[in-house]
Amino acid sequence: MDRIAKQHLEMEDFFAGFTLRNLSEPKPPADPVILSPHAPSFQTLVETIAQCTLCELSSTRNHTVPGEGSLKADIMFVGEAPGADEDAQGKPFIGRAGQLLDKIIGACGLSRDQVFIANILKCRPPGNRDPKINEITKCMPYLVRQIEIIQPKVIIALGAHAARTLLNSNAAIGRLRGQFHNCHLCPNLDPIKLMPTYHPAYLLRNYTRDTRGRVWEDMKKVLAELGLPLPK
Ligand code: SF4
User: Fold this and answer.
1) What is the pLDDT of residue 39?
2) Which residues pair with 69 in a beta bridge?
3) Ligand 1 midpoint to CA 218 (Å)
4) Of 1, 66, 108, 128, which has the fewest beta carbons less than 10 angstroms from its beta carbon?
């Protein structure tokens, strides 16, 4: 059996067996709260991002990837930047790493439309290189505004780049993960609980019971923080 197929079977095994929460209940309509003076609504924000040329990534992208999910989500996942699949479709986390993220969300008893998924950068760095400081600086106001609108109870930072950026830290992800930190990114909001964990792409590259177990430990802490039961 080839390695990727084996990984998918193991993913099924590791994150399977959990039931989704009842999704039949109608959700109330999104009700963005305007906190910053003159700040745009979510849809205006998406349209602004689509037109954005503030950094050089605008010249190489195919699509902007503003993020998607519930505007009333308690959990907001934040990764580093779109990859090739995301750039092609304008949606966050839809490649192999995205499939694993879906498994992790499902293991928590949730579905993609009950959380919000975004990245620090809204455009793909060519060749998936690391984001540059000036790109992060230019793009960060969009994420800040998204957090202001959604007001998640917990942010889950996926990977070292997201965790370090959101926490203004240089610490290794191995030291940051596993415990809550306070995220002070939004001056208009109280600090938000932030749980760093491994990026799903890292998990795929280092696919061991130990790394999967650590991510699951992180997720269990988030569920406990939100008062959500552990799926059986
Ligand atoms: S990465 Fe962000 S700042 Fe740069 S062009 Fe895209 S949306 Fe604008």
Assistant:
1) 57
2) 116
3) 30
4) 1
Cα–Cα distance for residue pair 119/112, rounded to 1 Å: 15
Residue 36 dihedral angles phi and psi, to the nearest 5°: -85, 140
pLDDT score for 35: 42
What's the fold here for domain 40-225? Uracil-DNA Glycosylase, subunit E (3.40.470)
Indicate the domain borders of the chain.
40-225
The pTM of this model reads 0.87
The ranges of the chain with pLDDT < 50 are 1, 16-38
Q: Which helix (H) or strand (E) holds 193?
A: strand 192-197
Angle, vertex CA 62, rays to CA 133 and CA 199, nearest 5: 50
Token couple for 115: 């959380």
Give the span between the Cα atoms of 57 and 67, in whole angstroms. Answer: 17
pLDDT tens by residue, 156-180: 999 999 999 999 999 999 999 999 9
User: Could you identify the residue written with the tokens 């503003």?
Assistant: 66
User: Atom of ligand 1 at shortest distance to CA of 53?
Assistant: 5
Query: Considering the chain, what percentage of its residues have pLDDT values greater than 90?
Result: 80
Query: Tell me, what's the pLDDT at 153?
Result: 98
Best residue among 53, 54, 142 to mutate for probing ligand 1, ranked by most atoms within 8 Å of CB: 54
